[in-house]
Amino acid sequence: MIEITPTISLADDELEFSFIRASGPGGQNVNKVSSAVQMRFDARRSPSLPNDVSVRLQRLAGARLTQDGVIVITAVRFRDQQRNKADAIERLAELIRKAEPAPVKRKPTKPSRAAREKRLEGKARRSTVKSLRGRPIE
């Protein structure tokens, strides 16, 4: 069980890991060891996520989301498998934490009377300045 927030935790069987060879530093070891981790999480069908969180998570995932609603996270930051696995889980947890809070509804506001008057006064002043730039009247 992976605890994301006090209200959301994921079962271990919801995450699917595959290990692939990573590019980058590592010498000969990079050709022999599959240290990179590719983690798949089905956000659309996950029983652990509330529906509204799932929808926001899918929107946040962007290019990491497949057409089937599966989020694919590839972790290659570290040279060993366990640290890359932990990194992938932490990145998914961070995405879910961002998706959890519902967006705050915007309250429409109106400019105050003083602000409207100030704006109109500025427009009148600018109009006067521009009208004085014309040719003198004979």
**Alpha-beta content class:** alpha+beta
Q: What is the CATH topology assignment?
A: Double Stranded RNA Binding Domain
**Overall geometry:** elongated
Helix content: 25-40%
Order of helices and strands: EEEHEHEHH
- Report the C-alpha radius of gyration, rounded: 28 Å
Bin the strand percentage: 15-25%
Spans of 5+ residues with little confidence (pLDDT < 50)? none
Feature tags:
138 residues, alpha+beta, Double Stranded RNA Binding Domain, three-stranded antiparallel beta sheet, 5 strands, 38% helix, 17% strand
Q: What is this structure, in a nutshell?
A:
By secondary structure, the protein is α+β, with helices and mostly antiparallel strands. The protein contains four helices and five strands, in the order E-E-E-H-E-H-E-H-H. A hairpin with a 5-residue loop joins strand 1 and strand 2 (9-10).
Q: What does this entry look like structurally?
A:
By secondary structure, the protein is an alpha+beta fold. It has a single domain (2-99), classed as Double Stranded RNA Binding Domain, CATH 3.30.160. It has helices spanning 29-32, 51-61, 81-99, 113-131; strands at residues 2-3, 9-10, 15-20, 36-42, 70-75. The strands form 2 sheets. A 3-stranded antiparallel sheet has the order 3-4-5, covered by helices on one side. Strands 1-2 form a two-stranded antiparallel ribbon. The longest helix is centred in the middle third of the chain and has 19 residues, at 81-99.
